[in-house]
Q: What sequence folds into this?
């Protein structure tokens, strides 16, 4: 074999090896990016679900009001019992305050995550305010 | 045959790839979750405190009990009420403090956890304050 042919072979081998390394790096990067996007999506769903512990107690449809004017920072038990969950689309979640189910689009037999927060519950029947547990499952 | 210069170039490429991968892993675990987690713990702490102050105790509320305590009345019921509600409705251990306008702290529910997230301070009509700190999970 001539010297020129040898040099061409060397160059071909080097290009081949570098191409293989770049291909491996691209595959690793692609998989990493896909996993990262999945993680970001899961984190986004977590933030969206957990954020409901701040949003729900402040919904006018649930909050205690007097003559239409928002009063205390408390959830009205009667309003919770007749909460029209068709108006809001919370996505694939289950929302409960103690035993009162506000919204349930979770389905059964799936792995779920849960986050809860204490809230104030006002019972207009006896005028008492008690602590209740708002549970968000997703 | 691979020349010395080519081997060095390949070494550099490998080092570069490793550095990029290390940088990506660093970015991935650079404390995003801690910020999210703290944010929701703060909301939970605020919800707990806002609920606690309104909870009915006989014909009064917890807030009335705290005001009476700071006015030199009976403080014996405040601590047990805080513990009962906190243990029942919070998932984590917590610290509670009632600080009267005269700078005395007649009710303190302490905790041993190393790291906490604080609620906002609730200032009562008399200038007395109360706040909670929730323990971080880690």
A:
């Amino acid at each position: 074999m001539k010297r020129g042919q040898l040099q061409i072979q060397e160059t071909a081998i080097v290009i081949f090896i570098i191409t293989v390394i770049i291909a491996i790096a691209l595959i690793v990067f692609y998989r990493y990016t896909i996993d990262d996007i999945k993680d970001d999506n899961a984190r986004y769903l977590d933030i969206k679900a957990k954020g409901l512990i701040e949003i729900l107690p402040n919904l006018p449809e649930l909050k205690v009001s007097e003559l239409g004017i928002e009063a205390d920072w408390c959830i009205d038990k009667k309003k919770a019992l007749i909460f029209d969950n068709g108006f809001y689309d919370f996505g694939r979640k289950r929302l409960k305050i103690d035993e009162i189910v506000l919204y349930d689009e979770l389905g059964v037999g799936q792995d779920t995550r849960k986050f809860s927060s204490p809230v104030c519950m006002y019972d207009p029947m006896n005028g008492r305010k008690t602590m209740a547990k708002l549970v968000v499952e997703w | 045959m691979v020349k010395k210069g080519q081997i060095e170039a390949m070494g550099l490429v490998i080092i570069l790839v490793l550095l990029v991968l290390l940088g990506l892993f660093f970015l991935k675990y650079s404390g995003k979750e801690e910020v999210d987690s703290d944010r929701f713990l703060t909301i939970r702490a605020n919800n707990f405190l806002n609920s606690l102050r309104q909870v009915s105790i006989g014909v009064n509320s917890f807030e009335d009990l705290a005001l009476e305590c700071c006015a030199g009345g009976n403080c014996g019921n405040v601590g047990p009420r805080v513990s009962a509600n906190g243990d029942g409705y919070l998932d984590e251990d917590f610290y509670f403090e009632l600080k009267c306008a005269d700078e005395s702290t007649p009710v303190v529910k302490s905790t041993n956890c190393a790291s906490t997230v604080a609620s906002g301070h609730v200032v009562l009509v008399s200038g007395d304050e109360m706040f909670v700190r929730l323990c971080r999970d880690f």
Observations:
- Helices of chain B lie at 4-28, 32-54, 62-70, 78-89.
- Chain B has a mean pLDDT of 88.
- The longest strand of chain B covers residues 129-135.
- The beta strands of chain B are 56-57, 60-61, 94-99, 107-109, 116-118, 122-123, 129-135.
